[in-house]
Structures are given as C-alpha cells and as structure tokens.
Q: What sequence folds into this?
C-alpha cells in the first residue's frame, strides 16, 4: 500500500536503552503479557516498546521516552489507536498499575488482527451514537 | 472536588473553552464535573499527571482517541498540544457526537495495511 507521506521525515534517532533481563544491554526483551521473546530490531521503527503479538508494553519510562526513570514497572495494555496528521497509526497504552498513559508508533510487524480489533472497539458496543449517524 | 464549595455556586460555575471560546457550565447534565468543552471536546492542561499536583502548562489539550472501558463506556484521550502529556476522561451525555464519531472511524479511514485482506474472514 502506498504511504501517504510525500515529504521525507527526519530519520529516527537510535535508541540506546537497557533491555536485558537484569537491566543490562540486550538485543531482545521478553513480553510481560505473552512471554514472547521480542527482538529490538523492528521494521518501520527504531523505537519498539511493545510486543508485536499482544501489543503489551512495560511501564519503565518517565516523562521522556527511553529515560528509564519510572519505578512502577507495571504492565501496560493497549487501549486505543489514534492517527497522526500524516496517516501514521499510534498506539495508546495505559498502565494497569498506576493508570499512566503513553503513546507509541506501531511497528511494521505488529499483529494486524489485534490492531484492527482495537480500532473497531468503539464501533461494536451499544454506546455508538446512532442518532448522529442518522442525522447525516 | 472540594467539599467547601456550596452546591449552588458549583451549579452556576462556568469556564471558557480554550479553543472555541464557548462558555461551558462546570457540571454536566448528569451532575458530574466536566473538564472538556462539549462542542469541540478540547480540554486545558491544568493537572500534572506524572508528578501530580497542578501543572504550569495550561495550554489546550486536543482530543485524539476514544478508549473503551470494560463496561462499554467511552473515555476520551486528550493530548496536550504544548507538552504532549496524555489524560483520559469519561465522555458526557452532551458531548458533540459528530466529533466523537469522527475520532472513532478515523483509524479505519487511514489503515496502515490493506483492509481487503480481512474481507475473506
């Protein structure tokens, strides 16, 4: 599918954060949701922070992505999808322990079914504003 | 919400919207305190979510997404246009349904993968 990005963006900065099991440097991390071993190299992004299979993340960063200043270390589940102005999808994670929200770009190998289910979630419930649709 | 505010004062309290300038009552029809404009759904960054307490940012927060809770209720995710912080708030009954609907279908209008592949399922 053609990308809707006519102009070239600045390349992403290399991420240099600790990913090993004991806080050392590593080239993979283990998902807290499904225990999948996830390599850090991801197609389309240099800043992978969630599992491509179940989209679960870990709450380790504070105010700045990659700073590793958060002591919570709770599991973060994907709660929603948003779209940037240039058409990029962004995942919104919420920490199950402290309720903090964070946002991250999706990677090229993220599970398309899970992404689509997340995007469809507002449209399947009974809360759907049918009146607004009928007024169109 | 502090207890020392008389209820009648709270009922007539208003705030101006950051974006569209609409004067909004501080209480929604259900009686809960609201934090975003029902017309354009913009909010104002007044609370620091990372360290707690009031925030010095005080700029507008744009609605970016809808999160669905386990019980089916919708929550609005706001993104601060200046510092990038995210907050979530339950929607009110009188919120603009068109903007809510637009936010719900926007990811499906710009999919990162062809949706035709899901047609055979």
A:
């Amino acid at each position: 599918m053609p990308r809707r990005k006519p102009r070239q963006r600045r390349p992403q900065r290399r991420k240099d954060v600790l990913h090993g099991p004991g806080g050392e440097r590593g080239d993979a991390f283990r998902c807290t949701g499904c225990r999948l071993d996830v390599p850090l190299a991801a197609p389309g992004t240099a800043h992978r922070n969630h599992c491509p299979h179940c989209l679960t993340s870990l709450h380790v960063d504070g105010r700045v992505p990659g700073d590793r200043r958060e002591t919570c270390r709770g599991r973060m589940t994907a709660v929603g999808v948003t779209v940037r102005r240039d058409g990029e999808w962004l995942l919104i994670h919420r920490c199950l322990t402290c309720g903090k929200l964070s946002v991250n770009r999706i990677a090229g190998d993220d599970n398309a079914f899970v992404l689509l289910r997340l995007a469809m979630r507002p449209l399947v419930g009974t809360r759907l504003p049918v009146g607004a649709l009928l007024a169109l | 919400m502090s207890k020392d505010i008389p209820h009648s004062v709270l009922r007539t309290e208003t705030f101006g919207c950051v974006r569209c300038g609409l004067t909004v009552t501080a209480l929604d029809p259900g009686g809960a305190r609201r934090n975003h404009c029902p017309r354009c759904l913009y909010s104002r960054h007044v609370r620091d979510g990372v360290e707690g307490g009031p925030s010095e940012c005080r700029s507008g927060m744009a609605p970016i997404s809808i999160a669905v809770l386990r019980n089916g209720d919708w929550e609005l995710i706001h993104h601060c246009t200046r510092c990038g912080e995210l907050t979530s708030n339950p929607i009110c009954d009188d919120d603009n349904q068109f903007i809510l609907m637009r936010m719900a279908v926007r990811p499906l209008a710009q999919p990162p993968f062809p949706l035709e592949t899901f047609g055979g399922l």
In short: Residues 25 and 80 of chain A are 30 Å apart (CA to CA). Chain A has a mean pLDDT of 84.
